[in-house]
TrEMBL record, chain A:
<dbReference type="Pfam" id="PF00005">
    <property type="entry name" value="ABC_tran"/>
</dbReference>
<dbReference type="GO" id="GO:0005886">
    <property type="term" value="C:plasma membrane"/>
</dbReference>
<dbReference type="InterPro" id="IPR003593">
    <property type="entry name" value="AAA+_ATPase"/>
</dbReference>
<dbReference type="GO" id="GO:0016887">
    <property type="term" value="F:ATP hydrolysis activity"/>
</dbReference>
<feature type="domain" description="ABC transporter">
    <location>
        <begin position="4"/>
        <end position="251"/>
    </location>
</feature>
<keyword id="KW-0547">Nucleotide-binding</keyword>
<dbReference type="InterPro" id="IPR015854">
    <property type="entry name" value="ABC_transpr_LolD-like"/>
</dbReference>
<dbReference type="InterPro" id="IPR003439">
    <property type="entry name" value="ABC_transporter-like_ATP-bd"/>
</dbReference>
<protein>
    <submittedName>
        <fullName>ABC transporter</fullName>
    </submittedName>
</protein>
From TrEMBL, chain B:
<dbReference type="InterPro" id="IPR027417">
    <property type="entry name" value="P-loop_NTPase"/>
</dbReference>
<dbReference type="InterPro" id="IPR012700">
    <property type="entry name" value="PhnK"/>
</dbReference>
<dbReference type="GO" id="GO:0019700">
    <property type="term" value="P:organic phosphonate catabolic process"/>
</dbReference>
<dbReference type="InterPro" id="IPR017871">
    <property type="entry name" value="ABC_transporter-like_CS"/>
</dbReference>
<feature type="domain" description="ABC transporter">
    <location>
        <begin position="18"/>
        <end position="272"/>
    </location>
</feature>
<keyword id="KW-0547">Nucleotide-binding</keyword>
<protein>
    <submittedName>
        <fullName>ABC transporter ATP-binding protein</fullName>
    </submittedName>
</protein>
<dbReference type="InterPro" id="IPR003439">
    <property type="entry name" value="ABC_transporter-like_ATP-bd"/>
</dbReference>
<dbReference type="GO" id="GO:0005524">
    <property type="term" value="F:ATP binding"/>
</dbReference>
Length: 252, 276
C-alpha cells in the first residue's frame, strides 16, 4: 500500500532580501513511498534533500504539486482512501497530523536549555498523554539502546558532544512512534560504533508501523537500512532505485 | 473548537480621520497618519485561537503587537480609540462592548493577562502567596485552608519554592516574580492566557526555565495562549502558529516553523535574517 504519493512537487523561494531573486529548491519531483518502507534520499549539497523533507513536513510551503498522505485517513475530510494533500491542507490540519502521526528530526537537536536528556526524549510521549513515569521509562530504554551513557540521562544536552546530542535527537524522534518519520541526517555526527547502534534501532523500528523518508550521507547506513534510494540532483528527481542497485555509487 | 475569534481589531491614538487607514500600514511604511498625526497602533487585525493552541505575535517595538494583545485580553486603554469584534466561546456578542462587571468576570475567570512589566501585575508589598490568593479571592474563594492549598499547588506547578510563599514579593528574584505572575494568571483555570513579552527583565538562563515551565503547564492544563514577543526565540519555543506584525498590521501568518524557515513577506525575511 502507498502511504505517501509525491506528485510534481516544486518549491521556489522568493528572496526579497536578495533583490527579489528566485531560488529553485525542488522542481517537479514525483515518487511514491510504500507502507513500512525505508526510503533514503541522497544527492549533493544543495540538491534539494532537506527542502524535500521540509516540504513534506510543511516547514516549507510547497509552491506546486501534491503530497498525498494516506497514513491518517481517519483525519481526512473526504472519502476514505483519498488521503490528505499535505501541500494544500491548512495549518491546523498540519498541526493535528504532526501531533498524531508525522515526526521530523533535523541534524541538530533543537531543545529548551536546562531540560535533562531523558525529559527531552520523553516530551513527545508526555504530550500524547502518556503518564510521566512511563514516558521517562521509554525514554531511558531508547537512550540505552543508542548507547548514551547512563550518567548523561539526567544531564542537560546543551553540554553534550555532537554525537551525544544527536542520539538524544534520534531517540526523541523515535519515542512517539510516528506513522511517517522524516529524518534529516540523523547520524551525521555519530562514530562508527554508535552509528551501528542507531542502524540497529532504525531497522527494528521500521517495518513495524513506521515508514521512513530519510536524508543520509553515509553509504554504509543507507545500505544497512534503506529499501530504496531517491537520488536528487539540482532540485530534480534523477532516479529512484532499489538499494541493491545503488551499491557502490558515490554519495555527494 | 474555536475559543477566540477576533475581527477588525483597531487601536488608534489621536483624533483619527477618514484617511488614517489608507495612509498607514505596511505599504505606507508608517503607523502615523500624515494627514492628522494620529498613530494607528493596530488595524485590520483578524485572528482565531483554538482551545489549547498557542499563537505567537512577533514584531519590533511599535509594530502594534501589544495593542493587539491588550484587546484580546479585554484590557482597555482609556487614551485610545478602539474598534473591532472579539467573540469568545460560551459568551454572547462582542466582548469589547460588554459592561464593566462582565468584563471583570471574564478577566478573573476565562481570560488572564500576564503583564510585560512585573509591577503592573503584582503588588510588591504583598507576599508572593498573597498576590496569587488575591486572584482566587476575587473569584469568590473564601475558605482560608482552600486558598492556601490552591496557592501551594500553583507554586509547585510554576516551580516557586513553597517555603517562600509568605515572604514579600519584593524580596523575590525577577524570575520568581515572573513565576508568581504566571501562577496568578493560572489561578482560576483560565481557558486563555495572554503573555506580553514574558522574558522582559529576565537574564537568559532564567528566561529558558520560565518558558519551559510555562510550556509544560500550558500543555498539561490544555490552556490556550497568545504570546507576544519581539524575541523570535520565545515564539519559536512556545507557539504553534505565529503572526508577524509591522506598522500596525499583520503582514504574515502561518505555522511557526514555516514563518521562521520559509518566510514569505519581505519584512519577515529581514527580521529572520537579523537574528544574532
Amino acid at each position: 500500500m502507498t502511504v505517501l504519493s509525491v506528485e510534481g512537487l516544486s518549491k521556489t523561494f522568493d528572496m526579497h532580501v536578495l533583490g527579489d531573486t528566485q531560488v529553485v529548491g525542488l522542481d517537479d519531483v514525483s515518487f511514491d513511498v510504500r507502507e513500512g518502507e525505508f526510503l533514503a534520499v541522497v544527492g549533493e549539497s544543495g540538491s534539494g534533500k532537506s527542502s524535500l523533507l521540509k516540504c513534506l513536513y510543511r516547514t516549507y510551503d510547497p509552491t506546486g504539486g501534491r503530497i498525498v498522505y494516506h497514513g491518517a485517513d481517519e483525519l481526512a475530510d473526504g472519502d476514505a482512501g483519498d488521503g490528505i494533500d499535505l501541500a494544500a491542507c491548512d495549518d491546523r490540519e498540519v498541526i493535528a497530523l504532526r501531533d498524531a502521526t508525522i515526526g521530523y528530526t533535523s541534524q541538530f537537536l533543537d531543545e529548551i536549555p536546562r531540560v535533562p536528556a531523558v525529559d527531552v526524549v520523553a516530551r513527545p510521549l508526555r504530550e500524547q498523554g502518556v503518564p510521566a513515569e512511563d514516558a521517562r521509562g521509554e525514554a531511558r530504554e531508547l537512550l540505552s539502546r543508542l548507547d548514551l551513557p547512563e550518567a548523561l540521562w539526567e544531564a542537560y544536552p546543551a553540554t553534550f558532544s555532537g554525537g551525544e546530542r544527536q542520539r538524544v535527537n534520534l531517540a526523541q524522534a523515535l519515542s512517539p512512534r510516528p506513522t511517517l518519520l522524516l529524518l534529516d541526517e540523523p547520524t551525521s555526527a555519530l562514530d562508527p560504533e554508535t552509528r551501528q547502534a542507531a542502524i540497529d534501532l532504525l531497522r527494528e523500528y521500521v517495518g513495524e508501523d513506521t515508514t521512513v523518508v530519510g536524508v543520509f550521507h553515509n553509504t554504509a547506513v543507507i545500505e544497512a537500512v534503506a529499501d530504496r534510494v531517491v537520488v536528487l540532483d539540482d532540485g530534480k528527481l534523477q532516479r529512484v532505485v532499489p538499494v541493491a542497485d545503488f551499491e557502490g555509487e558515490v554519495v555527494g | 473548537m474555536t475559543l477566540l475569534d477576533a475581527e477588525g481589531l483597531r487601536t488608534v491614538y489621536g483624533d483619527g480621520c477618514d484617511r488614517c487607514l489608507d495612509a498607514t500600514g505596511d505599504r505606507a511604511g508608517t503607523n502615523q497618519c500624515p494627514h492628522c498625526g494620529s498613530v494607528v497602533a493596530c488595524a485590520e487585525a483578524d485572528l482565531t485561537v483554538r482551545a489549547g493552541e498557542v499563537l505567537g505575535i512577533v514584531g519590533e517595538s511599535g509594530s502594534g503587537k501589544s495593542s493587539l494583545a491588550e484587546q484580546l485580553a479585554l484590557e482597555r486603554d482609556p487614551d485610545a480609540e478602539t474598534d473591532g469584534v472579539v467573540r469568545y466561546a460560551g459568551h454572547e456578542g462582542n466582548l469589547l462592548d460588554v459592561d464593566y462587571e462582565t468584563r471583570h468576570d471574564l478577566r478573573t475567570g476565562d481570560i488572564a493577562l500576564v503583564h510585560q512589566h512585573i509591577r503592573d501585575g503584582l503588588n510588591p508589598e504583598f507576599t508572593g502567596g498573597g498576590n496569587v490568593a488575591e486572584k482566587l479571592l476575587s473569584a469568590g474563594w473564601r475558605s482560608f485552608e482552600d486558598v492556601r492549598a490552591r496557592v501551594r499547588e500553583l507554586f509547585e506547578a510554576t516551580e516557586i519554592p513553597v517555603d517562600r510563599m509568605d515572604d514579600p514579593t519584593s524580596t523575590y528574584s525577577g524570575g520568581m516574580q515572573r513565576r508568581v505572575q504566571i501562577a496568578r494568571a493560572l489561578a482560576n483555570d483560565p481557558e486563555l492566557v495572554v503573555l506580553d513579552e514574558p522574558t522582559t527583565g529576565l537574564d537568559v538562563s532564567v528566561q529558558a526555565r520560565v518558558l519551559d515551565m510555562f510550556r509544560r503547564v500550558q500543555r498539561e492544563k490544555g490552556v490556550a495562549a497568545v504570546v507576544v514577543s519581539h524575541d523570535l526565540g520565545v515564539v519559536r519555543l512556545l507557539a504553534d502558529r505565529t503572526l508577524v506584525m509591522r506598522h500596525g498590521r499583520v503582514v504574515e501568518s502561518g505555522l511557526t516553523d514555516r514563518v521562521m524557515e520559509d518566510p514569505h513577506h519581505e519584512y519577515t525575511q529581514t527580521l529572520i535574517n537579523s537574528v544574532i
